[in-house]
Amino acid sequence: MTIWSQYQGQAHTRTLSGELHRLVESQEQVATLAYVDTLEEQTLLESMLEDAKPPLPPETSGYHYLLATPFRYPPLRWGSRFGRVHERGIFYGGLSSQSALAESAYYRLVFWYSMRGTPPRNVLRSQHTLFTVRYQCRQGVQLQAAPFDAAQAVITHAEDYTETQALGSDMRGSGVDGFEYASARDAQGGLCAGLFTPLALASREPESSSEWFCELRATAVAFRQQRSGDVQRFAVEDFLVGGRLPMPA
């Protein structure tokens, strides 16, 4: 029996609204410029890369690319917490910047420890954009609340996504357009949300954005806001389970 059927999920749908915080890499243009000699060549290379990507779903027409992109791809090779490998991508974000950065820090460390061989440098630096957008769900679910709170150990499991992916499929099939849930990575107990469709977004443009620098090491991740200089650090120990970094599965 799945979580959705066990707790009669359809009976617990409701309207949801709030603000999502999402962190994305912002170095695409810098990265492509490293491979070419002129701006004209960069434009051509970026056009070729764009053509090689999966087409955007029709329902994302008119949305800012930061809002449309999460729906473009199926999840990663291991899926995502609520998405199977063959399903359309989910727009994930934190309900606070702290939760968004904590989730991102975890996945930066997964990237580090997934490298084959020795990392090329002791520290990897990258640039990111943290943006906000409001969501408005007609059929939403609060997985952090009753009755689903009884299954929190499963919903926030550090690396086994089997049951949460089944839950995601059940929610998607029941017409749910968005959901909230407890972050599995934020030690401060923050919340996250996921949207199955761009129609759950309250606007077609981000509400606000800020630029951040990231430094990734084997022992920690640090994010520094470009304008204010505010620094948020996450030690690898924040994410260890049984002395090891859990890998999504």
From TrEMBL:
Domain of life: Bacteria
UniProt name for this protein: RES domain-containing protein
Matches recorded under Pfam families: RES (PF08808)
InterPro entries: RES_dom (IPR014914)
Domain RES: 70-207
